[in-house]
Specification:
The structure is a single chain. The strands form 2 sheets. Strands 9-8-7-6-10-11-12 form a 7-stranded mixed sheet, with helices on both faces. The protein is globular, with a radius of gyration of 21 Å. Strand 1 and strand 2 form a beta hairpin. It is an alpha/beta fold and 447 residues long. Bound molecules: NADPH dihydro-nicotinamide-adenine-dinucleotide phosphate. The site of NADPH dihydro-nicotinamide-adenine-dinucleotide phosphate has 23 residues, from helix 8.
Length: 447
């Protein structure tokens, strides 16, 4: 078995040697899916996994735009169309200076499995740009988004590829992108998700990733007869996913101790309650400030510069910022401090070594492709509502989201049980996601 996995990974490494994040994501899948493939004759000779690690298409393009000083700026735009076996490509756009082909290929690859797990008909894709939205005026953001879409529009469409938001891309950016797509195509169509409520957006979509992550963690805790009630919860990030994860934790009776951004984390021993969270939402979403400014209103809290919050004692950890933000030593500290559950809101926030620590300690650990799938699932629900030209109520969407998270949890239980009864959610999510995509690829032949 080991030699099968090694041979496969060597081949992928040869072809993608400068793409560490992509290789990390492939390795995690290969280690759990290859042993499953080997045990099932139907996959013999089909090279399914090798086909899955090669994007169907990777588009890279120039984005030139003019800043407020009248100077011409040039960024690089991308769209990775990874796999369309079970539906049109679907996945977010990330605007962040670290964006490159490796990061987008890792995200697109994960997205294929995640979208499959939702049971909705969506293939996987991801895109974005190395554009840094920090410190840019609204007009600069608009000009950049318009320039970006003036190229991307050729490759997307409501039945081809439906982008959404991700880091640095929220409702404001989706609005500018949608406006330019509509102008160029002369049609009002559900080509992007995460739209505003007055122009085709779905209720609960802004909340969905964070809420879904907490619903998933709740299901995991239930397997131990436990819940969020009275638990100390450490959350990283302070963007879309972190904010709504924190909100749901509070609704379920947990205590949120931390939030963070790329400059450091705040620790509020008294707990970040609803009022304080509303302050953070205003600070981050409207004023576009830094998390350290929390202390100006709540001076009893601490700001720990340049660090991640994993050193704070907690029972539950929700990494909701970015990839590889939780490393092996952090995982050891969490375990030492009594953490019993880690549920990823971000994509691949835990390194491979950190996951090994969680598995060794046999705590509940959910990989992002299962626990943060609520965002894309609700995007799928937004697409359905756009096609129906209809709008479901908040309660209807929230109930569908809960059902989807519960079904993803069931799929993980079906494929993730180890011999000793421990649920390996990484194995469960990878195999459950793989089975459906592989079946569709085999049915469609070698294309
Ligand atoms: P936002 O842009 O709203 O927020 C991102 C947060 O993460 C900010 O607090 C940001 O801080 C912090 N962050 C970004 N990069 C770093 C870094 N290198 N080190 C430390 N902190 C960092 O993004 P989202 O909340 O939408 O996304 C967060 C994560 O969730 C990402 O991994 C994304 O892929 C994933 N995700 C998002 C979904 C969605 O629906 N939005 C769906 C599924 C997954 P700062 O402001 O300083 O940059």
């Amino acid at each position: 078995m080991k030699s099968n996995i090694e041979a496969f990974l060597n081949l992928v490494k040869e072809r993608n040697s400068h793409e560490p994040e992509f290789l990390q994501a492939v390795e995690e899948v290969a280690e759990t899916v290859i042993p499953y493939i080997v045990k099932h004759d139907i996959y013999y000779g089909k090279n399914i996994l090798l086909r899955m690690v090669e994007p169907e298409r990777l588009i890279s393009f120039r984005v030139s735009w003019v800043d407020d000083k009248g100077e011409i700026q040039v960024n690089r735009g991308y769209r990775v169309q990874m796999n369309s076996a079970i539906g049109p490509y679907k996945g977010g756009l990330r605007f962040h200076p670290t964006v490159n082909a490796s990061i987008l290929k890792f995200l697109a690859f994960e997205q294929v499995f995640k979208n499959s797990l939702t049971t909705l008909p969506m293939g996987g894709g991801k895109g974005g740009s190395d554009f840094d939205p920090k410190g840019k005026s609204d007009n600069e953001i608009m000009r950049f988004c318009h320039a970006f879409m003036s190229e991307l529009f050729r490759y997307i469409g409501p039945n081809t590829d439906i982008p959404a938001g991700d880091i640095g891309v929220g409702t404001r950016e989706i609005g500018f992108l949608f406006g330019m797509y509509k102008k160029l195509n002369n049609e009002f169509t559900g080509v992007l998700t995460g739209k505003g409520m007055s122009w085709g957006g779905s209720l609960i979509r802004p909340e969905a990733t964070g809420y879904g992550n907490v619903y998933f963690a709740e299901k995991m805790l239930e397997t131990k007869g436990d819940s969020f009630k009275g638990k100390n919860v450490v959350v990283s990030g302070s963007g879309n996913v972190a904010q709504y994860a924190a909100e749901k934790v509070l609704q379920l009776g947990g205590k949120v101790l931390t939030l963070s951004d790329s400059s450091g984390y705040i620790y509020d021993e008294a707990g970040i309650d609803e009022k304080k969270l509303a302050f953070v939402m205003e600070l981050k979403n409207v004023k576009r400030g830094r998390i350290s400014e929390y202390l100006e209103s709540y001076p009893n809290a601490k700001f720990v510069k340049g660090k991640t919050p994993w050193e704070v004692k907690c029972e539950i950890a929700l990494p909701c910022a970015t990839q590889n933000e939780l490393q092996e030593d952090d995982a050891k500290v969490l375990i030492k401090n009594g953490c019993i559950c880690v549920s990823e809101g971000a994509n691949m926030p835990s390194t491979k070594e950190a996951i090994a620590v969680f598995h060794k300690a046999k705590i509940l650990f959910a990989p992002g492709k299962a626990s943060n799938a609520g965002g894309v699932a609700t995007s799928g629900l937004e697409m359905t509502q756009n096609s129906l030209r209809y709008k479901w109520t908040r309660e209807e969407v929230d109930n569908k989201l809960k059902d989807i998270m519960s079904n993803i949890h069931k799929s993980c239980l079906e494929y993730g049980k180890d011999d000793d009864g421990y649920i390996d959610y990484v194995k469960g999510a990878n195999i459950a996601g793989f089975v459906k995509v592989a079946e569709a690829m085999m049915a469609q032949g070698v294309v």
